[in-house]
């Protein structure tokens, strides 16, 4: 039996970084917690803890925020998928964040198109948590910030170097030799970022928890992928597993696979190694290992399953 305990990251053991991004000192965004669970992630801070550093074709992370805390407008070169683990969240997008918006609650998933400025805020009454899947091993080389975010950060002492690292001028930090501030996007570059409306984005990129759970009654609900509810090829597939989704005999796959607990508790056996996953737990299962996944108790139960594919890590918004 192989010991795979180091492939499991428990929700209660997640280590946050409160200085992960350029808006870490900006009022309204200065209480964010960023988590890098699998892969290098896109954090701009040397203080970011990485739980599992393996490159498996995609990254897993999370963001935790108290009520009224906001993540500033940014874009990615690869896919960014969120599902809500806890709380109520408003996602918004566009150059100024006013092109469209959608509210998501526990279990809902949003496959945000690449090449669009996006942000999100906790609009619930309690601390909220969203889990993230980022395409590619290097997640596209970092974050692209809206110009006003960089300007606001500078007013509060944080400068992002063109090496992708943050420097806190209020602590006396200066940019190293050969490093200059990250340039803001020009008007011509900004004009290339689409401004899709809510009605254009939501039907194609948002799936609701109970719709997915209903489809996962007898087999896995194909959520994101070539044949998914949200048809896309972002470099990984996402399924929702429900109580009756998988055969008792189990299965094997040649791809890297990550299980992410959503509701209920799940018993997972990988070639004799057995564990139970709770909501918020993450289990990275290596390829070519036989596994069984079954509910550990009665009641509502669902988990997300993310599988690596050979597709490019993200598609640009298409009208």
UniProtKB/TrEMBL annotation:
Domain Cupin type-2: residue ranges: 67-131
Record flagged with keyword Transport: no
Which Pfam family, giving just one, matches this sequence? Cupin_2
GO terms (molecular function) for this protein are: metal ion binding
Q: Which InterPro entries match?
A: Cupin_2, GPI/OXD, RmlC-like_jellyroll, RmlC_Cupin_sf
Which keywords describe this protein according to UniProt?
Metal-binding
Entry's PANTHER family? OXALATE-BINDING PROTEIN (PTHR35848)
> Could you tell me what this protein is called?
Cupin type-2 domain-containing protein
Q: Which organism is it from?
A: Nereida ignava
